[in-house]
């Protein structure tokens, strides 16, 4: 009997897409995550510089989110060594396991597939590219900078984004990622930092082209809060416009946008220093981008942070793909 389950591909990175992958993995779909390999901060950044390897952190987050292992096993996989552990300080067990698998296999995709089996992942996880990428940004003031963490720390408005490999050449996407995208019924972008988690995948030329040509329903999960510099003053339509501009097509069909007002003083801006303000809605400007917004209270508050409800987002995505 032919498998009638829809093919859903989620593209992004950071801590954003794992928040919905955890719930999507339990839906009756064929789920694939395509994950950025341009991160250069934290434990990932240290291992990347020290060992010259593909960044691990975003892939590890997705492995945890899509794993069906018991919580005790996942807690060990996510265990982070304490600050006074010298060489191992700040590193997670998962990052070190991925580093070991990469050294054994000599190939990041093979390493991820090995860990998918060990972690009993429900679905597929592919790095966007089989090598580490560098993100470069040109800001609206004309200056340019390279590096994911440097771009975030600059707190400047971004005009254009692009990626390159270690030699400065135009990268090629992983063939398995392209295949998943071309066979998708629904492609989900985000949630996550627009310019440093979502867009680095889409500006890989052949990957962005595949998304446009796939014929899939493209859904953007809009952030609830703006990020200093990167998206300061952005409305929901500005986020979609930036995606369309950098890919070169008006390709986003739907946007899931939180319309729940964030209570005053409920966000800890000292702890989450990259945040600025709640994203404002602009349905008329959305029409100009040929994008249909879906406004609902997709937000939950936790530990002084405003995050999307993975369950609500998953439910809405299932409605859209089943009505496609």
Automatic annotation (TrEMBL):
PANTHER family: GLUCONEOGENESIS FACTOR-RELATED (PTHR30135:SF3), UNCHARACTERIZED PROTEIN YVCK-RELATED (PTHR30135)
UniProt keyword Disulfide bond present: no
Subcellular location: Cytoplasm
Name under which the protein is recorded: Putative gluconeogenesis factor
An example Gene Ontology CC term for this record: cytoplasm
One Pfam family named in its UniProt record: CofD
Function recorded in the entry: Required for morphogenesis under gluconeogenic growth conditions.
Any one GO biological process: regulation of cell shape
Keywords: Cytoplasm
Membership in a protein family: Belongs to the gluconeogenesis factor family.
Keyword ATP-binding recorded: no
Alphabetical list of InterPro entries matching this protein: CofD, CofD-like_dom_sf, Gluconeogen_factor
Main location: cytoplasm
GO molecular function, one term: LPPG:FO 2-phospho-L-lactate transferase activity
């Amino acid at each position: 009997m032919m498998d009638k389950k829809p093919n859903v591909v989620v593209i992004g990175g950071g801590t954003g897409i794992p928040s919905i992958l955890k719930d999507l993995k339990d839906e009756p779909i064929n789920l694939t995550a395509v994950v950025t390999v341009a991160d250069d901060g934290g434990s990932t950044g240290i291992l990347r510089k020290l060992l010259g390897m593909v960044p691990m952190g975003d892939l590890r987050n997705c492995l945890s989110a899509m794993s069906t292992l018991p919580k005790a096993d996942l807690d060990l996989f996510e265990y982070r060594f304490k600050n006074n552990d010298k060489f191992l300080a700040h590193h997670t067990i998962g990052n070190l396991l991925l580093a070991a698998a990469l050294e054994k296999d000599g190939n990041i995709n093979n390493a991820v597939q090995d860990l998918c089996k060990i972690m009993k992942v429900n679905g597929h996880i592919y790095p966007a590219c089989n090598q580490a990428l560098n993100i470069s940004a040109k800001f609206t003031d004309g200056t340019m900078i390279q590096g994911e963490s440097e771009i975030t720390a600059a707190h400047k408005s971004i005009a254009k984004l692009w990626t390159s490999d270690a030699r400065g050449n135009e990268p090629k996407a992983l063939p398995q990622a392209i295949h998943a995208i071309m066979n998708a019924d629904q492609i989900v972008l985000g949630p996550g930092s627009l310019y440093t988690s979502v867009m680095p995948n889409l500006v890989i030329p052949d990957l962005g082209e595949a998304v446009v040509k796939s014929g899939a329903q493209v859904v953007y999960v809009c952030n609830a809060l703006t990020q200093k510099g990167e998206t300061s003053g952005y409305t929901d339509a500005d986020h979609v416009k930036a995606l369309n501009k950098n890919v070169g097509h008006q390709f986003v069909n739907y946007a899931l946008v939180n319309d729940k007002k964030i209570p005053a003083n409920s966000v800890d801006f000292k702890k989450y220093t990259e945040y600025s303000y709640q994203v404002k809605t602009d349905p008329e400007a959305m029409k100009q981008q040929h994008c249909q917004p879906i406004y609902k209270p997709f937000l939950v508050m936790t530990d002084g942070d405003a995050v999307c409800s993975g369950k609500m987002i998953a439910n809405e995505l299932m409605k859209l793909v089943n009505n496609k």
